[in-house]
């Protein structure tokens, strides 16, 4: 497997679970996934959410993408450090892709519209069949 398989899997999975840390307490939540490409895994959040403060304090995250299927399905875990992306073109694109954000008063230049990505890290796939095999990490980013 290679990074292209990771991109495909993520883009086929509209909801993932993202883990952050607050102090010494892990925090995990289901999050609507935006998209992935060769430059990373992209997410959009609101600045008023606790997750934003957590990411500012500690950029280390792990995302879990799960698709149901045979036995317990297939999972991909992605770990790395996030980076915030302040790009007006991407902010316009997220508003096109997620028009409901406008209902919250968000515009491409609103400071509450936050985009971040996992641009560098490692990913691996898991199934019940591969449960006891050594993890085969797929490195991505610089």
Automatic annotation (TrEMBL):
InterPro entries: Pyridox_Oxase_N, Split_barrel_FMN-bd. Residues 8-94 form the Pyridoxamine 5'-phosphate oxidase N-terminal domain. SUPFAM superfamilies: FMN-binding split barrel (SSF50475). Pfam families: PNPOx_N. This is Pyridoxamine 5'-phosphate oxidase N-terminal domain-containing protein. It comes from Methanosarcina barkeri 3.
């Amino acid at each position: 497997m290679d990074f292209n398989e990771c991109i495909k899997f993520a883009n086929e999975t509209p909801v993932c679970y993202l883990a952050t840390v607050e102090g010494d307490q892990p925090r995990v939540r289901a999050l609507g996934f935006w998209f992935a490409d060769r430059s990373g895994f992209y997410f959009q959040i609101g600045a008023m959410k606790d997750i934003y403060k957590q990411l500012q304090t500690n950029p280390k995250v792990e995302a879990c993408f799960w698709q149901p299927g045979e036995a317990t399905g297939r999972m991909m875990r992605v770990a790395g450090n996030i980076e915030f992306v302040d790009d007006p073109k991407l902010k316009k694109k997220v508003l096109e892709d997620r028009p409901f954000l406008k209902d919250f008063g968000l515009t491409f230049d609103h400071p509450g519209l936050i985009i971040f990505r996992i641009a560098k890290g490692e990913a691996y796939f898991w199934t019940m069949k591969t449960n006891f095999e050594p993890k085969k990490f797929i490195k991505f980013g610089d």
